[in-house]
Write a structure and sequence with these properties.
The chain has five helices and six strands; from the N terminus they run H-E-E-H-H-E-H-E-H-E-E. By secondary structure, the chain is of the alpha+beta class. It is globular.
């Protein structure tokens, strides 16, 4: 495999899909990590989009899975396998996209995070968000990081782990 993260990701995903009997092309897009301080510790994110041109709607549904479970599993494998034996500074983050699922889901999660933030501010009490994958919980943490009056953390153990949003003033108070 190539040493360039984008090419490695595209080759790996194309091979995985070919092994499952689904030959296709993979488009790559780099999303550069940015922070407000300018010195991000987050790795760049490589979006690997599966070309669905020759897919049936059934194949698309199967590859996405219930609530994105298959796409999440493929993405987890990609991030695990492609970063194996890579030094920390060369590790990359991969997002697997199909049929606009990730973009739509990200918008839903952003709306959910904003609603939770509004509820916390209104009630001055913590709010739990359930039924999120670990990647989705990470997105909510990232979305709400910019709000200095709120904090987020995860509580519980898989598969019952959920995200908590609360006012900073409740810090140290576990309910």
């Amino acid at each position: 495999m190539s040493n360039i993260p984008m090419q490695r990701g595209q080759e790996w995903l194309k091979t995985l899909l070919e092994l499952t009997g689904i030959p296709t092309e993979i488009q790559g897009h780099l999303e550069t990590a940015q922070s407000q301080e300018g010195d991000s510790t987050e790795p760049d994110n490589y979006w690997l989009t599966i070309d669905q041109t020759n897919f049936t709607s059934e194949q698309i549904q199967i590859l996405i899975g219930a609530d994105g479970s298959v796409l999440d599993a493929i993405q987890y494998l990609a991030n695990s396998v492609l970063n194996l034996s890579q030094p920390p500074e060369e590790q990359a983050s991969y997002t697997i996209e199909l049929n606009g699922y990730r973009v739509k889901r990200e918008a839903e999660i952003r709306t959910l995070a904003q609603a939770a933030a509004d509820e916390v501010r209104f009630s001055d009490r913590e709010v739990e968000i359930k039924s999120l994958s670990s990647a989705e919980r990470r997105q909510v943490h990232t979305f709400l990081k910019e709000f200095g009056d709120l904090e987020t953390f995860s509580r519980g153990k898989e598969p019952h782990r959920h995200l908590v949003v609360r006012p900073v003033s409740l810090e140290g108070v576990e309910s």
